[in-house]
Amino acid sequence: MIHISKMTGKLEGFQAISTNTTTNEYCQKKYNEQNPNVICTFCYSHEMLNTFRKNMAPALQRNTDLLNSKVLHPDALPVINSAFFRFNAHGELALDKKEATINLENYVNIALKNPHCTFSLWSKRFDVIKPFFDKHDKPKNLILIYSTPLTNHILKKIPQYFDKTFNTVVETDYIEQQNCTGQKCKDCLLCYKKDTTSIIVEKVKTYGKKKLKQKLNKQ
Q1: Contact, 129 vs 92, CB < 8 A?
Q2: Which residue among 27, 141, 194, 197 sits deepest, i.e. has the most Cβ atoms within 10 Å of its Cβ?
């Protein structure tokens, strides 16, 4: 059975279907590079799942194993009793493109099963998204958000099939353009409605990485 998480903090009031960031080879590679110019270096999910949220990891791993292994029968997909829902509050589509495509198809099928709900999926995997939707219709209730890998690089050209871009910047830069800072998602919903701005900008959360923060600020 797919595990649905009840979110806290910034995502308080939301539910999500997530996967295990700490075993995702794509996430591991990007996180371990510790490049201050790449947002994966400051991954909140890695920090949480390796420390005070370790107890979440087994449930997220079960989701990873289930969602990446096969296209699930519609009866195995959950009914979502929410207006807005998040895919991958933790995690990313797998490094293996076959597994990533299966995961994506399962998310699409969940959206199709729940047309009353709007689903948002953040991903950096344009190399998976484009080939899939070249061959499949995109559900009207699925919002795809391209999570820009580079910090302090606001991407205004939205990649094909995506609806928005999510960008991170140094807290002292692009202050007037920061529209996803200091608020909870349920009070904002920029990422969960198509008729809002398509360019989302948030300041980088460095999670105590002082040396990396200093290096980032000098770029």
Answers
A1: no
A2: 27
CA torsion, ordered 1, 104, 122, 38, to nearest 10 deg: 110
CB contact set of 53 (below 8 Å; sequence gap of 6+)? none
End-to-end CA distance of the chain: 45
Boundaries of domain holding 191: 5-217
CB count within 10 Å of CB 203 equals 18
Predicted confidence at residue 184, as pLDDT, reads 93
Distance of CA 69 to the CA centre of its chain: 20
Q: Over the stretch 13-54, which tens digit does the pLDDT of each residue have? A: 999 999 999 999 999 999 999 998 999 999 989 889 988 888
Cα–Cα dist 151/14, whole Å: 26
What type of residue sits at position 50? N
Backbone angles phi, psi at 169, to 5 degrees: -135, 160
Distances 139 to 71, 73, 82, 129, 142 between C-alpha atoms, Å: 17, 18, 17, 13, 5
Domain count, the chain: 1
Q: Are 144 and 129 in contact (CB under 8 A)?
A: yes
Give, in order, the Cα–Cα distances in Å from 172 to each of 43, 98, 149, 185: 20, 40, 19, 22
